[in-house]
Amino acid sequence: MQSQQKDRNACILNTLSISELADACKREFDMVGESGAVSFDKASLALLRLATIRDSKQAWLALEYGFCQKLVLCLRQHPRFQEALRLQSEQEYITRAFAHFRQTTVSKQMEFASLSAALRCLAVCLNSVIFDMLRSAQQSTREPQQVFSSPAEIWRVLSQKLTEERERRLAYLLFQCGLKPTEIVERCAHEFRDLAEVQRLRINILDRLATISLR
Question: Superkingdom of the source (predicted)?
Answer without folding.
Answer: Bacteria
